[in-house]
UniProtKB/TrEMBL annotation, chain A:
This is GTPase Ypt71. It is found in: Vacuole membrane. InterPro entries: P-loop_NTPase, Small_GTP-bd, Small_GTPase. One of its GO terms (cellular component) is fungal-type vacuole membrane. Pfam families: Ras (PF00071). The gene is ypt71. Keywords: GTP-binding, Lipoprotein, Nucleotide-binding, Prenylation, Protein transport, Transport, Vacuole. Coiled coil: none annotated. Belongs to the small GTPase superfamily. Rab family. Its main location: membrane. GO terms for biological process: intracellular protein transport; negative regulation of TORC1 signaling; negative regulation of vacuole fusion, non-autophagic; regulation of vacuole fusion, non-autophagic.
Automatic annotation (TrEMBL), chain B:
Transmembrane segments: none annotated. PANTHER family: RE60063P, TBC1 DOMAIN FAMILY MEMBER 20/GTPASE. It comes from the Eukaryota. InterPro entries: Rab-GAP-TBC_dom, Rab-GAP_TBC_sf, TBC20/Gyp8-like. Keywords: GTPase activation. Residues 35-220 form the Rab-GAP TBC domain. It comes from Schizosaccharomyces japonicus (strain yFS275 / FY16936) (Fission yeast). The gene is gyp10. Gene3D superfamilies: 1.10.8.1310, Ypt/Rab-GAP domain of gyp1p, domain 3 (1.10.472.80). GO terms for biological process: endoplasmic reticulum to Golgi vesicle-mediated transport; septum digestion after cytokinesis. GO terms for molecular function: GTPase activator activity. GO terms for cellular component: endoplasmic reticulum membrane. The keyword rRNA processing does not apply. This is GTPase activating protein Gyp10.
Length: 207, 372
């Protein structure tokens, strides 16, 4: 028996240093959280096989360095991405302000033909921390996503306790799948994609 | 190592230290067993760097002046993710982290032109775990100006040139592997953390990290680049096999990233030494990889002569200036490619209009003179 053909989808994870990019990726891929992740230098990826709407896919998740100094390296890994995740820390306003920089830098470097259609998933991480420490209110983030007008989905997550992590990544996988099939539409018009069912979970929104 | 062997090896180091025999110390760091224990590492590292252990009291006053420095936020972030391999008690962990933060406070306030990079904290940790605070500070400052300064420039370019040099060395030793990697489009960034942290970011075993530091401190700054290349060359067969079997650039890249995790340090050191013999430093064409004339890779002499043979802080400043100048040259080049109407300033616009105006008047004058 031959295994069904798997679709390989590439996803890049961007965001300021220390917001939890590596932790989120490891929580999703290995269901593990550790306080002992070192800072990421350069970039590396993990893969995860999953099924989305009956289609077998392999997600290749590229974790990148957050220090601005290394931003130019990321460009080499942006190529061919089907979805881009931008992470911020809900307890760090500066990391939220950087979301737009990361997004525009990504769009500029990939010079996507249709910038508005390219899927971004914005993740507000570290919601497990004491609510009194929060500096980025959910509404603030939601209105940012709405005002951008592009294909932006937002979730609030905790890489530590796993809140919303699998939901967010499922949505990421769908967005990536949808994007890759748009790109391939000329060569492959068979089979329709079951579109994202955007039920809003707590703290999540498809804007 | 057997107990007796360790004893013998230690006395060998002690003997060389007593005689201030830096040649022998350098040999022990390269082809020998390294400096084995903290109490020997400290004097050996200092002698090999041409430094005296009687350092004047550290300039902690710098800590009191000014409240912050440019990369403070980044340093704090990395500090909170440091010392994991030492498995220490939370109280001790806090203490170690605050020492790390203090060391950077002093360095970056004293030398505000230096730009912190993620990974420098890995190197600083190794020094702080091996030496007293003031000695770690002194040695880190020395390493920064004589071995790591290319990585602390405002631009990442000089670091990337060192990675290109690594690929160049691979090409000279194994052209087939090199062309396979290039053909596949594998990025050379897999070795970034090896290069800028002397492998301390990627190796878990602290003893192995210290052994590598013994090696690098005992040798020329270029040795680190050679060691990075050697690690790839040591895995040439497996890499070629992967590529032949259809592994894509991504899989090859991630395989390369993980090489230090299964590294036998003594083998790497031995092989790197033999690579340095077959491909001596003077034979290497640093220009072809755009290594700056101010780069620490260009310093001549033994490890303990680096500070005498070059003025690290001044070369760093000149390299900064050079980068600034080349950036503006690139800008000018770019400017000359733009259409005229996008680049002329107000004054030259006036001049251009005048010239065009004169041209029109002149052509009318010529026409009126020659009505036929």
């Amino acid at each position: 028996m031959t295994s069904p053909r798997r679709t390989l989808l590439k996803v890049v994870i961007l965001g300021d240093s220390g917001v939890g990019k590596t932790s989120l990726m490891n929580q999703f891929v290995n269901h593990r959280f550790s306080r002992e992740y070192k800072a990421t230098i350069g970039a590396d990826f993990l893969t995860k096989e999953l099924e989305v709407d009956g289609e077998a896919i392999t997600l290749q998740l590229w974790d990148t360095a957050g220090q601005e100094r290394f931003q130019s390296l990321g460009v080499a890994f942006y190529r061919g991405a089907d979805c881009c995740i931008v992470v911020y820390d809900v307890n760090n306003a500066k990391s939220f302000e950087s979301v737009e920089n990361w997004r525009s830098e990504f769009l500029e470097q990939t010079s996507s033909l249709n910038n508005n259609a390219f899927p971004f998933v914005i993740l507000g991480n570290q919601i497990d921390k004491d609510p009194s420490k929060r500096t980025v209110p959910l509404n603030h983030a939601l209105s940012y996503c709405k005002n951008q007008g592009g294909n932006l989905t937002h979730f609030e997550t905790s890489a530590k306790d796993g809140t919303n992590v699998s939901i967010a990544f499922e949505s990421i996988a769908r967005s990536a799948l949808e994007n890759s099939s748009h790109e391939d539409y000329a060569s492959d018009l068979t089979g329709s994609i079951s579109l994202l069912n955007n039920t809003n979970e707590s703290g999540s929104c498809a804007c | 190592m057997h107990r007796d062997e360790i004893k013998k090896a230690q006395s060998e180091v002690k003997f060389a230290l007593l005689n201030s025999d830096r040649e022998t110390l350098s040999c022990i760091g390269q082809t020998g067993h390294g400096f084995l224990i903290k109490s020997l590492r400290k004097p050996a590292w200092f002698q090999l760097c041409g430094l005296t252990l009687h350092t004047p009291p550290a300039r902690e006053t710098a800590l009191l002046q000014g409240d912050s420095y440019a990369d403070k936020h980044q340093v704090e972030m990395d500090m909170n993710r440091s010392y994991f391999h030492s498995k220490t008690h939370p109280f001790r962990l806090r203490k170690q982290r605050s020492r790390l933060s203090k060391v950077f406070d002093i360095i970056f306030k004293t030398h505000p032109a230096l730009c912190y990079y993620q990974g420098l904290h890995d190197i600083a940790q190794v020094l702080l775990l091996t030496l007293s605070f003031s000695h770690a500070l002194r040695l880190l400052e020395h390493l920064i100006f004589f071995r790591l300064r290319d990585f602390l420039l405002p631009s990442l370019e000089p670091t990337l040139h060192q990675l290109e040099l690594m690929m160049h060395i691979i090409k000279l030793r194994d052209p087939e592997l090199s062309s396979e990697l290039v053909k596949l489009g594998v990025q050379n960034y897999f070795a970034l953390s090896w290069l800028i942290t002397w492998f301390s970011h990627d190796i878990e075993d602290f003893g192995a990290i210290c052994r590598l530091f013994d090696f690098f401190i005992a040798t020329h700054p270029l040795t680190v680049v050679y060691a990075c290349a050697q690690l790839v060359l040591d895995n040439s067969l497996e890499l070629k096999h992967m590529i032949r079997n259809g592994s894509g650039a991504d899989n090859v890249y991630t395989f390369l990233c993980k090489l230090p995790q299964q590294l036998d340090v003594e083998t790497l050191i031995r092989h790197t030494c033999s690579l340095c013999r077959t491909l001596p430093f003077p034979k290497l064409d640093l220009d072809s990889c755009s290594i700056s004339k101010y780069s620490c890779l260009r310093t001549k002499g033994e490890s303990w002569e680096l500070a005498n043979n070059s003025d690290g802080p001044m070369l760093f400043r000149m390299h900064c200036e050079d980068l600034k100048a080349s950036k503006s040259i690139t800008k000018d080049k770019y400017n000359s490619l733009l259409p005229l109407d996008l680049r002329v300033s107000g004054r030259s616009m006036v001049a251009a209009i005048t010239v065009i105006g004169i041209g029109i008047v002149a052509s009318q004058y010529v026409t009126s003179q020659n009505p036929s």
